[in-house]
């Protein structure tokens, strides 16, 4: 069951030695089908999913990440003196030594914790009492809305993409198509609103495009049509 919480993601982290020459920024971008492992100067690790973009700024007093349309798994080194701040949509995530998956696609933010505790506050009330998000919980937020939703969630499902799997539990087929478009070079589209709204549950192993589409046809009531520019999913 979901729990409405105050809007504002501020998640609580950080260790490491920082350059004495001042902050430096680096932008990381992955193409469709490409993932990337990033190790920061403090020992924090970021696994960047396909078709994603983030900018990291390393400073003496704070570490900052600006997350565009992206998904990433973060393993943040502990350093309470140097907060790890993530700007994602209209929210800010503040972390203190934890492991979590953060997804920002279109206007939806999803944060799932696998290790440690994440503190969540309204962005306009940074001194307010935080919500503590712990292992096995997921916070979701729609940009522009006042509240967020906190629910129980299997963290391994959120992290499954790091091992070549996509796990869905009663999610719209439009979301599956969008994920596959990022995973492979040829865009995947739904034929119409009715097809897009179909609900899908299952595990897709993303080894290669042809096999993934074959499995999707077996699990969902759709057929695959190939055009010159895209792959179209149409309801059977």
Key descriptive features of the protein:
45% strand; 236 residues; globular; eight-stranded antiparallel beta sheet; 4 helices; mainly beta
Helical segment count: 4
Structure class: mainly beta
* Spans of at least 5 consecutive residues with low confidence: 1-20
- C-alpha termini separation: 32 Å
Strand content: 35-45%
Strand order of the largest sheet: 1-15-14-11-10-7-4-3
Give the overall average pLDDT: 87
**How helix-rich are the residues, as a percent range?**
10-25%
> How many E strands?
20
Question: Cα-atom Rg, whole angstroms?
Answer: 19 Å
Largest sheet: 8 strands, antiparallel
What overall geometry do the principal axes of the alpha carbons give? globular
What letter string, H or E per element, gives the SSE order? EEEEEEEEEEEEEEEHEHEHEHEE
Write up what this structure looks like.
- A hairpin with a 4-residue loop joins strand 5 (53-58) and strand 6.
- It is built from four helices and 20 strands.
- The chain is globular.
- 14% of the residues lie in helices and 45% in strands.
- The longest helix has 11 residues, at 173-183.
- An eight-stranded antiparallel sheet has the order 1-15-14-11-10-7-4-3.
- The model is unreliable at 1-20 (pLDDT under 50).
- It has 236 residues and is mainly beta.
Brief description of this entry?
The protein is mainly beta and 236 residues long.
Write the layout of secondary structure elements.
Layout: E1 3-6, E2 24-29, E3 36-39, E4 45-48, E5 53-58, E6 63-67, E7 70-75, E8 84-88, E9 91-95, E10 99-105, E11 108-115, E12 118-120, E13 131-133, E14 137-142, E15 147-152, H1 155-159, E16 165-172, H2 173-183, E17 188-190, H3 193-197, E18 199-205, H4 209-219, E19 222-226, E20 231-235
Parallel strand pairs: 6-8, 17-20
Antiparallel strand pairs: 1-15, 2-5, 3-4, 4-7, 5-6, 7-10, 8-9, 10-11, 11-14, 12-13, 14-15, 16-18, 19-20
